[in-house]
Design a protein that fits this description.
Elements: E1 17-21, H1 25-37, E2 41-45, H2 48-58, E3 62-66, E4 68-69, E5 72-73, H3 75-84, E6 89-94, H4 99-108, E7 110-115, H5 120-128, H6 144-158, H7 163-170, H8 174-182
Parallel strand pairs: 1-2, 1-3, 3-6, 6-7
Antiparallel strand pairs: 4-5
């Protein structure tokens, strides 16, 4: 029988410091309040520069970092965290979930990668999971339609919202792409 994943409790950790780096102020504030209620000592940053400065002064044991920030890439913050405290547990967040960025985040030192919107329970579970155990499958994974929609929008953003260039790279007709882009995201 496979070993059941044991989730640690924050009370089992000596250092409970958590840095949340996200430029979405309402989301960051909500997550910070929820994580404080769970027992973390939370500090916040809204960009790469402030996040790196905070890492240098506080050396957090835990971090939740958004991949895309207004002033740069959240991977820069992850690199700084790993340089200052290699035992830190970092979770990357992004609205554009895709495999290459997940792999890059893990290579830089993140222990997990969550797609937005992630709730506080998902974040806590990712931060406190035993790194030597295999993660449990998600309760509500994205549907195949949602994954396809996310991928198309990610390529669209990477092509600077150029429909013709995106259609060419995805090898699809431009009008088909326009119809997909005009629809809401599937559940």
């Amino acid at each position: 029988m496979p070993e059941i994943e044991k989730i640690n409790k924050i009370s089992e950790f000596e250092d409970k410091s958590l840095l949340i780096v996200d430029d979405d102020n309402p989301f960051r504030e909500r997550l910070a309040r929820a994580m404080e209620k769970k027992g973390f000592l939370v500090s916040q940053a809204e960009g790469v520069k402030i996040g790196i400065d905070s890492v240098k002064s506080k050396k957090p044991a835990f971090a939740v970092v958004d991949l895309r920030l207004n002033d740069g890439n959240g991977l820069e913050v992850v690199k700084e965290i790993q340089k200052n405290n290699s035992n830190s547990r970092v979770v990357m967040l992004t609205g554009y979930g895709n495999i290459p960025t997940a792999v890059l985040a893990i290579k830089e030192g993140a222990i997990d990668y969550l797609s937005k919107p992630a709730d506080a329970d998902d974040v806590e579970k990712a931060l406190l999971a035993d790194p030597n155990k295999k993660a449990a499958p998600p309760e509500n994974p994205m549907s195949a339609d949602r994954v396809k929609w996310e991928h198309i929008h990610r390529v669209f953003e990477l092509c600077n919202r150029n429909v013709s260039e995106t259609a060419r790279r995805l090898k699809m007709h431009r009008r088909t792409l326009q119809r997909i882009l005009s629809k809401r995201s599937p559940k």
